[in-house]
Each structure stands twice: as structure tokens, then as C-alpha cells.
């Protein structure tokens, strides 16, 4: 009884059918980029300083340039705004006081020669950026800068949990089912991020997005390697990951053109709706069907593969057996990663590497 690899040698290991499947799944890999590295643009932190009431009016009255205004009114301003005090502290003075000198405003306010006291930014911040990010929208700077780290940590936590669970779902219910459900969830989360008004909900949705996105990418990786012949699996696996790098370049260009994070989020989410067309243009993995004892469905896909590749399947290939088990339907579990010494060793090495 032939195996699937035996049949692929006759119907095509990497012909038109596999190339079509590979191409459409590379689109999925490229679309994963904004989820993984989106914090670079969604959480961009521009130069900033405390907003001080009365400074703009005083600057206009004195005829200061922007650089003169910053030198006179921002603590420890060195021309670049790089210190903590220049970004997160302001002079505790009333800039609306009459009689302030335009040449030495702090000296005219101090009077006693003591240094002017500094205080926190009670009236928000001024950002030197034409666009917006979650940092500028929710003031995630200074004492609240840790919230930006939490924004990315939430998606990473989702990656971790999703990688453990969605792999099981792909083995239990099929690669295609896992792919489609996670695409739907990712699209919904992406659209919700555009409209949610609070930081807390952004973190929650970001976690949910990470929960499904990593598993979605992994399910695509598994599927693309399972429809090709053995000698092409390493190549398509590498190129599938290279598609992620292409997506990164495209994402950079889009982010450059759209400096406002909500518009950027909407722009990178809407195209992923077209990935739902996978329901019609992607096959289920014949290897998974065989592992579930569904040989008839697997053979139907193989016949379609032969037809698309314009190859003729030998008549004596009437059935397929699963390469690793002749006992019918498989029941995967997490313990399979540790069941044998070789698999256990591979699992621990990969966990350590990651």
C-alpha cells in the first residue's frame, strides 16, 4: 500500500497545485508582521516635554524662537531634549505672572538666587511628532512608560499560550479549520483595536490577538509543508518565513505613509479579510486527513492535485496509508512531545533555544 510521499512522486511534489497553495499561504505569513512588530510604529515614542500653561503666550510676547523658548522654560534643555528632567519635569512657576523678563525669565521669577523647584507634568505633554501613537494618545511616558512594555508583553503572553493550545486544535480539528477560525479572530481583534477608546481594552484585545495570531501563522506553516514532497519541505518552510520579512518591508512603507496609529491599524487589518477566501482556495492537509482515518477525502484532494498538476495518477494507487501509524485515527496530546527519548530531546532543545 503506497504512502502519500510515494503518490506525490507521481502527481507532483512541488508543481502548480503546491505552488498555488504556497503562494496564498505566504500572503498569510506576510500579513502576520503588524501583530509581531507593530509596537515599533503603534507605540512610537517621539521627543516630548511637559506642557506648561502660559509658556506659549510668554514666548509670543517676547518674540522667542522655539529653541529660545525651550532653553528658557524647559529644565536641563540641551538642544535635544534627551534628559529625564527635560521630558518629565517642569518648572514650578506661574508663567502668566506679569513682569517676567524676556532675557532671564527664571531669574526674574526666582529673586532669591535659589534654584527654581521642579514638579511633575500636571498638564500633560507636548509631543514633537506630526502623527500619533498609543504613546501620544494615552501619555505612556515618564512614570507611565511601563504601560508601553505591557502593551507588547500582552501580545507575547498571547503568543505563548496560543502556541500551546492552537497546535493541539490544528491536530484535533484540522489545519484548515484552525487557519480559518484564527483568521476570523485576528480580523475581529484588529478591527476592535481601531475603535476601542481605553488603554485597558487595547491591552486585552492585544492579548487576544496574540493568542490567535501565532497559532494562525504556525498552522499555515504546517499546511504548506504537508502538501509538498519531502525534498521541498525545508525550502518552502524557509521561504514561508522569508515572506514574513517581505511583509516587514511593506509594513515599514505603509507606516511611513500613515503616521497615525489607528489609521495604520485599519489599513493593515482590512486586507486580511481577503484571507477568508482560503475557505474556497485552500485544501485540507491530506496528511492530517490520513492521520484521522479519512483516506477517501485525502484521495479526493490527491486526485485534484494530480489534475491541477496535469499529471496522471497510476491506477494501482487505490489507497493511502499513514506513514507513521497503521492503526487508523490519531489522538494527539501534549504528552506526544515527550513520549519518546528522541522527541523529548528535540522538544527540550527547541524550548531552550526559544
Word description of this protein:
By secondary structure, the chain is mainly α. Helix content is 61%, strand content 3%. The chain contains 18 helices and four strands. The strands form two sheets. It has a two-stranded antiparallel sheet with strand order 1-4. A two-stranded antiparallel ribbon has the order 2-3. Helix 1 runs parallel beside helix 17 (295-308) and helix 12 runs antiparallel to helix 13. It is elongated, with a radius of gyration of 29 Å. The mean pLDDT is 87. GO terms for molecular function: transmembrane transporter activity. Keywords: Membrane, Transmembrane, Transmembrane helix.
Would you summarize the structure shown here?
By secondary structure, this protein is an all-alpha fold. It has 18 helices and 4 strands. It comes from Junco hyemalis (Dark-eyed junco).
How do the helices and strands follow one another from N- to C-terminus?
HHHHEHHHEHEEHHHHHHHHHH
Multimeric state of these chains? single chain
Roughly what is the average pLDDT, rounded to an integer?
87
Quickly count the helices. 18
Shape: elongated
- The proportion of residues forming helix, as a percent range, comes to 55-70%
> Radius of gyration, Cα only, in angstroms?
29 Å
Poorly predicted parts? none
Number of strands: 4
Calculate the terminal CA-CA distance, rounded to whole Å.
39 Å
Class by helix and strand content? mainly alpha
Amino acid at each position: 500500500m503506497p504512502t502519500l510521499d510515494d503518490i506525490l512522486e507521481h502527481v507532483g511534489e512541488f508543481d502548480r497545485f503546491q505552488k498555488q497553495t504556497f503562494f496564498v499561504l505566504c500572503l498569510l505569513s506576510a500579513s502576520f508582521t503588524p501583530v509581531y512588530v507593530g509596537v515599533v510604529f503603534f507605540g512610537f515614542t517621539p521627543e516630548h516635554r511637559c506642557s506648561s500653561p502660559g509658556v506659549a503666550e510668554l514666548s509670543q510676547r517676547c518674540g522667542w524662537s522655539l529653541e529660545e523658548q525651550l532653553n528658557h522654560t524647559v529644565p536641563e534643555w540641551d538642544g535635544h531634549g534627551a534628559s529625564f528632567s527635560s521630558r518629565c519635569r517642569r518648572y514650578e512657576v506661574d508663567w502668566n505672572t506679569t513682569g517676567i523678563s524676556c532675557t532671564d525669565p527664571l531669574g526674574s521669577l526666582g529673586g532669591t538666587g535659589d534654584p527654581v523647584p521642579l514638579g511633575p507634568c500636571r498638564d500633560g505633554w507636548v509631543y514633537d511628532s506630526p502623527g500619533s501613537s498609543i504613546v501620544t494618545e494615552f501619555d505612556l511616558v515618564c512614570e507611565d512608560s511601563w504601560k508601553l512594555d505591557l502593551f507588547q508583553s500582552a501580545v507575547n503572553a498571547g503568543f505563548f499560550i496560543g502556541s500551546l493550545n492552537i497546535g493541539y486544535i490544528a491536530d484535533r480539528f484540522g489545519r484548515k479549520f484552525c487557519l480559518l477560525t484564527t483568521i476570523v479572530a485576528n480580523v475581529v481583534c484588529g478591527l476592535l483595536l481601531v475603535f476601542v477608546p481605553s488603554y485597558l481594552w487595547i491591552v486585552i484585545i492585544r492579548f487576544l490577538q496574540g493568542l490567535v495570531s501565532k497559532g494562525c501563522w504556525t498552522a499555515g506553516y504546517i499546511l504548506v509543508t504537508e502538501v509538498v514532497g519531502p525534498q521541498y519541505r525545508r525550502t518552502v518552510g524557509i521561504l514561508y518565513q522569508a515572506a514574513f520579512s517581505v511583509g516587514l518591508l511593506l509594513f515599514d512603507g505603509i507606516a511611513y505613509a500613515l503616521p497615525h496609529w489607528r489609521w495604520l491599524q485599519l489599513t493593515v487589518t482590512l486586507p486580511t479579510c481577503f484571507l477568508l477566501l482560503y475557505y474556497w482556495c485552500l485544501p485540507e492537509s491530506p496528511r492530517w486527513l490520513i492521520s484521522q482515518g479519512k483516506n477517501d477525502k485525502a484521495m479526493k484532494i490527491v486526485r485534484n492535485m494530480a489534475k491541477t498538476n496535469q499529471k496522471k495518477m497510476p491506477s494501482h494507487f487505490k489507497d493511502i496509508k499513514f506513514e507513521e501509524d497503521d492503526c487508523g485515527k490519531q489522538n494527539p496530546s501534549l504528552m506526544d512531545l515527550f513520549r519518546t527519548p528522541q522527541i523529548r530531546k528535540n522538544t527540550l532543545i527547541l524550548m531552550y533555544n526559544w
